[in-house]
Amino acid sequence: MIVPRRALILGAGAAGLARTFSLRRSFAASETREYLLAVRTATVNLTGNGYPDTAVWAYEGSVPGPVLQVRQGQPVQITVVNKFNEDTTVHWHGIRLPNAMDGVPGLTQKPIRPGESFVYEFTPPDAGTFWYHPHVDTLQQLGRGLAGALIVEEPEPVAVDRDLLWLIEDWRLDDRGRIAGGFGNRMEAGMSGRIGNTVTINGRVAEKVSVKAGERVGLRLVNAALARIVGLRFEDHKPVVVAHDGQPCEPHLPEGGRVVLGPAMRADLILDMTGKPGQTYRVIDDFYQDLAYKLVDLAYDGKPAREPRSEPPQQLPANPLPEPQIAAAERLEIALQGGMMGGMGMMCGDGATWTMNGMSMTGDGQSMPPLFAIKRGKSCVLALRNETAWWHPMHLHGHSFRVVSRNGKPNPGKEWRDTVLVPPRESADLAFVADHPGDWMFHCHVTDHQEAGMMAVIRIT
Question: What is the pLDDT of residue 310?
Fold first, then answer.
């Protein structure tokens, strides 16, 4: 029997408690916050006591890597030391930062060679939930454990009893607990990508999270999987979404009661613990038809912490994003093409399976002319048209955008995101101000799709 698969399907990992990171409010914003991240191999336990350990690639020897916390507007300096046997970089996903700090090898920086280091310096303008990961050999480096959360605290946080983080990762393990090979399989690359058989929260197959009746919990969700889309239902609870991809929104219940996150996407939730003391309630991922499983249990203590709150969750303060002028915006059409059942199949000799406007950028993407060149300060609309049979979470580096419409119809929320999930045969219009100069990646965050061609450069001059 493959132990990790049993742990996934039954939700009964040997760990008695999910390693639910409890975030701490911290430090003044006037001083530079310094961190050190060493990239190296490590051995960790993903599936619980009594089950095999797993050899991983890790930041500071842990999976996920350390939670980096900084205040909004506070300078941060992060020294990345490569104690690894191959090149690497770090991309600070969702952060609006100088192009030279974006972590794309050959495009914004030289790769960090084995034994070398690189210092990333930036001042995050936006509060919210972000994360970090490599942009070299991303499929393997991310798939073997290199990921971590970056939390930028707002000056006046929303009042909650606890602020928790769940960083969700997806692994393909064999019956000895080893990460299975086969990264870059052409068949998988042309379909949904590398889906694992084990899902962890903060580096562990989780059985339960202890909660108290009456608590109001702030829950930050990060989908750090290579390809798995999650659709989370909180049994007999009503999570309120207060931010997408680190950007505040009007508090609202998720559509259909399910929080859907493609790879790289995040959501900030307010979760009132309205269950009964001593009872257990499931958190279920049922995105994939007929493949639902229990991610974790919310296990209530025997006594309530307090009376339930009657006031609705308050809205987070807006971040200082430039508002695009839709009427004057330059419209840039982008067709997402290829993949199995999409005309390309597995026929291209250069490893390309996917295209954007008929062009493919494979590998880490360093030698392709820009898909578009945009003048700095210009309002733009990226008009995405998914002509494929597969889902694509499309990520723009260095910027956030408003999702102004879907399938030709206005999007009521017009929420800000940095990664948008585009279903098969559907479309989405994304509006933003091109205010940061440089060459910026725009790609699918199903990592197999990215490395097999669905990646491009947008140049802002």
Answer: 81
Alpha-carbon distance 313 to 285, whole Å?
A: 24
Q: Say which CATH number the domain at 336 has.
A: 2.60.40.420
3-state SS class at 188: helix
Using alpha carbons only, give the angle 357, 135, 95 rounded to the nearest 5 degrees. Answer: 90
Question: What pLDDT is attached to residue 17?
Answer: 40
Task: Identify the segments of the chain with pLDDT beneath 70.
Answer: 1-30, 342-351, 363-367
Is 316 contained in some domain?
A: no
Q: Number of structural domains, the chain?
A: 3
Q: List all residues 6 or more positions away from 422 whose beta carbon is below 8 Å from its beta carbon.
A: 336, 384, 386, 391, 392, 393, 394, 428
Whether residues 147 and 168 share a domain: the answer is no
Are residues 149 and 176 both part of a single domain? no
Query: How confident is the model at residue 366, as a pLDDT?
Result: 59
Q: What's the pLDDT tens digit per position in 91-135?
A: 999 999 999 999 999 999 999 999 999 999 999 999 999 999 999
| 266 close to 94: Cβ distance less than 8 angstroms | yes
Q: Is residue 287 part of a domain?
A: yes
Identify the domain containing residue 215 by its residue range: 162-300
Residues 6+ apart with CB under 8 A from 232: 221, 258, 259, 260, 261, 283, 284, 285, 295
- The gap between the terminal CA atoms of the chain, to the nearest Å, is 56
Pairing of strands 438-444, 354-356: unpaired
Cα 198 from Cα 359, distance rounded (Å) = 34
- Predicted local confidence at residue 19, as pLDDT: 47
Residue 28 in any domain: the answer is yes
Within 10 A of 70 (CB to CB), how many other CB atoms are there? 24
